[in-house]
Amino acid sequence: MAETPFRPAGNRHHVVIIGAGFGGLFAARELADADVDVTLINRTNYHLFAPLLYQVATGLLSSGEIATSVRQILANQDNVAVVRADVTDVDVEGQTVTANEGAFTRTYEYDSLIVAAGAGQSYFGNDHFAEFAPGLKTVDNALEIRARLVSAFERAELAETEQEREELLTFVIVGAGPTGVELAGQVAEMAHRSFKGQFKNFVPSQAKVVLIDGMPQVLPPFGKRLGKRAQRELERKGVTVVLNALVSNIDANTVTYKDTKTDKETTLRAATKIWSAGVQASPLGKQIAEQVGVEAERNGKVPVNADLTVGETDNVFIIGDMMSRDRLPGVAQVAIQSGEYVGRIIKEQVEHDVAQADRDAFEYFDKGSMAIVSRFNAVVKMGKVEVTGFIGWLMWLLVHVSFLVAGRNRLVSIYTWTLNALTPKRYNLSTTLQQQHGRNALKKLREKAGDDNLEEVRDTNGEN
Predict the structure, then answer these.
(1) Which structural domain, as residue segments, surrounds residue 100?
(2) For burial by CB atoms within 10 Å, which of 64, 230, 256, 423 has the most?
(3) Residue ending a domain, choose from 324, 358, 392
(4) What is the pLDDT of residue 225?
(5) Crossing angle for the helix pair 22-30 and 332-352, nearest 10 degrees?
(6) Looking at the structure, do residues 200 and 253 belong to the same domain, yes or no?
(7) Within 159-255, where are the H helices?
């Protein structure tokens, strides 16, 4: 006998939200005073502020400052039930969602479904690169990268030859979008400022940071002027910027890239590689798209209607990093605004029986893009307004502090950033072997034991 799908007692309109990233969280908040029951299913027990993962990776912040318990955030919202589980199946026709946590599996019946499962790292078909070049989409990724970075300097202290030390002190970052630029700037600052005087057998500033991208400029969405400003600042800080270059191979010790203009291949010896070149939407999007007769894009994003529904449905919404509409970028503001919008749509439907044809179309208000290039230096683009340098850095601080969902996290982050501005010290550089090797070790163990015995390891952002 098949299990009866679960729904909360009381038989109110049941909203299932998949993912507790910005989209899912803000949708749940928008429904706080609505006559609905909300089940929020998330793979982890925390809401992750992904734009600051690079600061965890480089020892500026601890993971606790950017990853906050979902239950704590929504503790005062009586109509929300939080479930930590991994969604494995969505049945659009049957209006059910199936999720499991280990051996425990439950199917949930929904009246409205909000899919905000986010996106993970894409290696453009070269998934084997992941073993040697972790992406930066999860807390685990950030802690692994931190361990790799710190370990490289520690091992360089023990290197027996200059060639070995040079390889250990070469850091390659693939992808010159905001994450890659911010990472490159912070790794250079670690070498030139934070680690100054801490090693006896070499000078940390001899480290080489290489930023590689296939595009002709860094930060393409920011425009040519800001891209050039960011590149000049990175180079001033000692970063080598390689553009028009596509990575063709990564292994334990090397990175090979090809110049797109000359087809010339170059191989760099580098112990530490980090990948920040692309994203792939959660596979749940493709699963849903196939059921409703919509074709998902190559990156997994799903085309949505003006009200962010998918296909001919009126109650299945795809938002944030998973949706494709008007070429909107995969940034926090898109997720926040789409989450709030869908929350309002469902609330209006429940309270006023608003038909789908009468729904207002989603309109995105672009609040701009920003990225820190170095200490006291950021680039900001808000419409036609472009800001750089110290003013841009202050704007970045204000915006990112406001995005942190917990008051304590705001205070701790402000304190930490102030200390880092005034002193070279970083207070979150502790690492473990588990952080450095755990992802690959668990993957190999799973392959040896079989998928039935160990939970699958996935490189996504934890929003499902």
Answers:
(1) 13-43+85-121+280-358
(2) 230
(3) 358
(4) 95
(5) 30
(6) yes
(7) 162-168, 178-189, 224-236
> What per-residue confidence (pLDDT) applies to 451?
56
Place of tokens 């960011």: 230
Indicate whether 102 belongs to any domain: yes
Residues of the chain with pLDDT under 50: 1, 452, 455-464
Q: What is the CATH number of the domain that holds 190?
A: 3.50.50.100
- DSSP-assigned states of every residue in 2-39: PPPPB--TT--EEEEEE--SHHHHHHHHHTTTSSEEEE
Residue where one domain finishes, among candidates 358, 389, 418: 358
State the amino acid at position 235 in one-letter form: E
Rounded-to-integer distance, Cα 73 and Cα 406, Å: 8
CA-based end-to-end distance of the chain: 29
pLDDT of residue 413: 87
- What pLDDT sits at residue 406? 74
Q: How far is CA 238 from the centre of its chain?
A: 26
Alpha carbon separation from 323 to 44, 222, 370, 459 (Å, rounded): 22, 22, 22, 19
Active site residue 182: yes
Residue 334 lies in a domain: yes
Integer Cα distance of 287 and 377 in angstroms: 42
- The 8-class DSSP code of residue 195 comes to T
Look up residue 398 and give its two tokens: 């204000």
Considering the domain architecture, whether residues 271 and 338 belong to the same structural domain is answered as no
What's 108's domain CATH number?
Answer: 3.50.50.60
Same-domain check for residues 271 and 284: no
**What's the pLDDT at 2?**
52
**Distances from the Cα of 123 to the Cα of 77, 166, 246, 329, 427, angstroms:** 39, 27, 12, 19, 32
Within 10 Å of residue 208's Cβ, how many Cβ atoms? Answer: 17
Query: 332 and 238, same structural domain?
Result: no
- Which one of the listed residues 30, 166, 167, 182 is annotated catalytic? 182
Distance of CA 135 to the CA centre of its chain: 9
